[in-house]
Amino acid sequence: MAESDGLTDEIVSNKWLEIASAIEGVVARIQDPDDFIVQTSSELAGDDACSSPYHLSHCARWCLNAGVDHLHALKTLVIDSSVIHSSADYSLARGALENFGAGFWLLHPPDRRIRVERAMRWWAKNFKDQSRATKGMPNETPLAPKLDKLVDIARAADCDLKRIRDGYTSSEALQYADQYSLARRPYLIWQVCSGFAHGRPWANIGMNAMEKRSTADEGVSLVRLTTDYKRLLGIAWPATRLMEDFLRLYQDRAKQAP
Length: 258
What we know:
- This protein is mainly alpha-helical.
- Helix content is about 65%, strand content about 5%.
- The protein has ten helices and two strands; from the N terminus they run H-H-H-H-H-H-H-H-H-E-E-H.
- The protein has a two-stranded antiparallel ribbon with strand order 1-2.
- A hairpin with a 6-residue loop joins strand 1 (about 210-215) and strand 2.
């Protein structure tokens, strides 16, 4: 591995072990039913009261659980099994970034009305995705009453109603995290990982090591693309930092008010 950028094999290995330890710690906490409790007089308890029955804390836990699951799967492959994939590992990081970004976007605003509005938009996205996926299936439930209920909750909480029915996008959440989190360029990293998930050449060519072999066709080469621990660290580290920022926010919002 080249060391011109200051990242030696030892540094990369130690950083991966640091990431692995952080992930395992959060996985253990998620398994503990007494962890991540929303304290009665906390900010998050107030958010939940305003967003009931579609609690903001429930949105955050969905995001946390899904994000950690993706990141743990990446860690299990790369660290525990020493198996590296040229595309799938990036797809796992993408799932982690999407969920941590959404959780950060939900919890970060200091204004409760914005937090509740975003919770309603998160649920609207959930219901709209569900409606598209289950259209025409037996026992399909109509979308409109669900969105109406979200608007009613937002109205009672004095939220801005303009965007409730629209839901939200991962791009919006990751751009927000880009601006306010300590993670390094999570929006760009998510875009790269999305490129891998969709089989886009630009992501593979831009990130992976490339071996070229000429062919009989002029201007056409056979290409072999591979990744390594160092390249994967460049996407796993921002995802881990975003997880930690999200966790700090959750803990601050969920703790007992002084």
